[in-house]
Amino acid sequence: MNREAILRVAIDAPLSRLFDYLPPSADLESLPRPGCRLRVPFGRRTQTAMLLEVGDRSELPLAKLRRAHEVLDESPLLDAADLWLIRFASDYYHHPVGEVVAAALPTLLRQGKPLDPVAPHLAITGEGAAADVASMTKKAPRQVQLLSLLQDAGRLRFDELDELMPGWKRLMKSFLDKSWVTLVEATIECCSESATNHNAGPAQPGPALNADQAAATLAISGQSGFSVSLLDGVTGSGKTEVYLRLIQEALGRSRQALVLVPEIGLTPQFVARLEQRLGIAPVILHSSLSDNVRLDAWRAARTGAARLIVGTRSAVFAPMKNPGLIVVDEEHDSSFKQQEGLRYSARDLAVARGKQLDIPVVLGSATPSLETLQRCIEGMYRRLVLPVRAGKAVPPLLRVVDLNRHQPSDGLSRPVIDAMRQSLADDGQVLVFLNRRGFAPTLICQNCGAIAECSRCDARMTVHSRNNRLMCHHCGAMRPLDGECHDCGGTVTPLGHGTERLEDALRIHFPEQLVTRIDSDSTRRKGALNKALAMVTSGETGILVGTQMLSKGHHFPKLTLVVVIDADQGLFSTDFRGTERLAQSLIQVAGRAGREQRQGEVMIQTGFAAHPFWSELLQGGYERVATSALAEREKAAWPPFSKLALLRAAATRRQDTHDFLEISRKKAEAVNAGGVRILGPVSAPMERRAGRYRAQLLFQSGKRQPLHRLLQALCEDFETNASARRVRWSIDVDPIELF
Fold it and tell me: Is the Cα torsion angle 268, 395, 392, 241 positive or negative in sign?
């Protein structure tokens, strides 16, 4: 048994264990506490590590343990609750704990930079403090001025000296030579405006709550401690108003509120509404921030200076000094599931974190996920329904346009064009929805039928006419637009419609209207999205065309007609979640119509009007579709009635991928104590992506425990398995996509 303390640390490396080190010095007055960072030797490099445990024994002999180089933090960066969340995420998602720490920390902290900002200072020394200023007055007035400033202040930042005495740096060398001053790096008190809830004007009172909103607010705020509430409200029912009342209540108790949203760039109206109603600007946390701004926001959340934090999925790890409430808006949205690296669900971690912190969690959606609905049925969550739109707004009318009867021209059928003309004539706006960016899905040869394909993926290249390029939307590969067929030299033609092509067609059909396109291509430049949304909100834009970006949380007062161009993509999906996602997408985008006084209309173009999905949706709404889908899932034992995990593998050689998965299948069968169904290995439907061949194993179980035991055994085996080093492998627990 070792007598010296053992520091067990997490290091950003693909290894599922902690590493043991000795303290930097054997005679430390006090040991660092869990949550502090250390700088440690790791192989031939030096790494920043997070201390998770302090023990008195190690599996290795004391003589083989290396000493940490230094302790980077005087007090823990992360408290016990933050460390619990990291360990929970690592265990549940079977991901190396060091990589989970890296995902939870801002980049600068991962790099070992200090928590608080530091800046160069000029500090007075003992000799400088004792220097006789009076004897210098006539000979060197500039030296006197600088010395007097430093004697009065003790030390000053360079930028402070620049303001007080421009040109002071010319004197610095002589002062250093005389040992009057020294250069120091010192912490500065800095909290940028973006990292504090600065005032955004006086808080404005909101509308009176209707009976359903009032009941939901009371049900959530009337209980203390942990609870999970599903706020199931139709689009326009005032879910945000309930959030606001709950946030106000939390802030009134000097508690912090964390609001998770699917995509921060898509919700400027939501953030503006928070500012207007609460009188404070929320601190924003998302991956597009600069490193310094992100650290500022993270630090403000940790100290409690940020009372209201709004962020995307990674914000679920943000430390909070005084946690009081977590809200997950649009809880069904797939953006809450990380699809690379640590494949976590921010929604599910928010629930786990709320339970650990003993605070309420609110999940909001007009189209709740089937997993969340089933938890409500089982009594684990409480379901609070907002069945009607707030104010005098009424639900939009939905109708299907059969493309077999009304052949489209440029993607638009005659009934749709006529309805658009009528809506625009009545001073309304039209939203045309097509979840496919670019000009056309592919380029085809009229002579031989050859299709432009990606050289790195089993996928077709998308035509982008604005920059005359072909682009692969899977790996990002680009090349100039073909002028002729590479196979036969024949004429090539774009096939199908994307938002670019639809935008051109709409401008031809409606030359008098301003057509605005909103997709990830048109909003790449900073501020482009906000500008486009402002044009729509003001009424300047008559026709809005775009992708899924438009279905999330936007409020367009004059919008009266929504047209869905291609609604059949999800009807025959190979994924068992296909109909659920189609219904969610349609209901969400339909909810943009008629949110004020005028009733809206939604027209859905389909080539399969007789499909039973449409009768369910039109007659019973999302509730009917969800009920039917849950019944089908229960019969087939798909989630939420079973637990899934995927073992994915990719390699530049197809054989390496399948060899690894075949070995993994045999290992899984050997350790499986029963209760876990093993399916595969099978190639992914798009087998080759970005030059790598992909395949997978599927694990299905009625209970979590046997599934997680099997996954743990596989992870331990992979660290010593030679075949695992020839592939890129990952484990995806609770996958939202099976292919």
Answer: negative
